[in-house]
Amino acid sequence: MKRIKTRLTFTLLLLLMPAFANSAQDSTSKFAEFKNELLPQVGKTVTVEGVLRSAKLGWIVEFKGWGIYVYATRESEVSKMNALNPFNEKLVSVTGTLHYFPKPKVPAGNVIVAIPPEHFYFDVAQAKVVDASTQESVVIRETVSKPVKVSTAPAECLATFREFFHYVQRTKPSIVTDERAQQRWLSKNLREALKQKVATFKDQPSDPDFPGNGTFVGTWDNPSTFTIVGSRRYNKRAVIDVWYAWGKGTNYPGDTRLSYFVFVYEDGAWKLDDVYTFRGEFATAESLNQYLRSK
Questions:
Q1: 35-60, pLDDT tens digit by residue?
Q2: Residue 260 contacts residue 240 (beta carbons within 8 Å)
């Protein structure tokens, strides 16, 4: 059988180091998810925190079921690998330029080659490794792994928004007095905020600033159209991006405005928790929840 020697971009000595990588390293699906998160960070200086262990290609800092290798790319830097021995099996913080080694092509034919796997890595010559278990934080470190999965808002949340928005476009019944509507569409926090705001008015409904359905639309002059331009879900919270536009016959023809309708999953249903209005030509930036709690 013919043998072919291959030349690796890092020292062959590293390939001879013992491999004690986490069993999760064998999961193709986990690596695909891990890869999607890290690829946009390649070439940038990032900080990751995890347990440092000896692995196939040198050291690996493990986090989120996978990890980033730390190894020498030049023979002259191999001694720096040994300097990391005191950190073995410890929680560390590693800062450095993130590199990516793509999945190599396997040569055709009946050959034996030494091919490193697809992976992310730090060059040990440039990486800074510190003990995270005793380190006092002096800065907020950026991490590359997402703590929650981000997706579009679920269909039931969008349906809830449309039902609620249809309700508050009417003058009556008013959600301020309609407790059934409050229980159906408002979070406990927002219901308490509304109750707190109402209590600050001595001359109720006749006061022009008294809350009403229009308070939840976020404008005193209703727009001509609204469009859901985007949405995001973060675990038990969802944000729906609503674009308002004013046409002819309104007080602000040609004006547009962006508002975020923030929902929380509470008591088995999606409930409105806040409405954030972005600053515009005729509007100031404002949180509905904060406004209702102001005196």
A1: 899 999 999 999 999 999 998 888 99
A2: yes
Cβ contact 92:51 at 8 Å: yes
Do the beta carbons of residue 291 and residue 284 sit within 8 Å? Answer: no
Closest-CA residue to 172 (of 142, 212, 199) = 212
Distance of CA 207 to the CA centre of its chain: 42
pLDDT tens string 116-148: 788 999 999 999 999 987 766 566 667 777 788
Let me know the angle formed at the C-alpha of 242 by 164 and 207, rounded to the nearest 5 degrees: 60
Half-sphere exposure of 236 (CA within 13 A, CB side): 9
Q: How far apart are CA 69 and CA 61, in angstroms?
A: 6
- pLDDT tens string 174-199: 999 999 999 999 999 999 999 999 99
Contact between residue 47 and residue 142 where contact means Cβ atoms under 8 Å apart: yes
Q: Which ranges of the chain does DSSP label H, i.e. alpha helix?
A: 28-38, 79-82, 155-168, 179-185, 188-198, 213-217, 288-293
284 phi/psi in degrees, rounded to 5:
-100, 155
Q: Which two tokens stand for residue 55?
A: 């692995």
CA distance 166 to 5: 71
Q: Comparing C-alpha atoms, which of 32, 33, 38, 89 is closest to residue 59?
A: 89
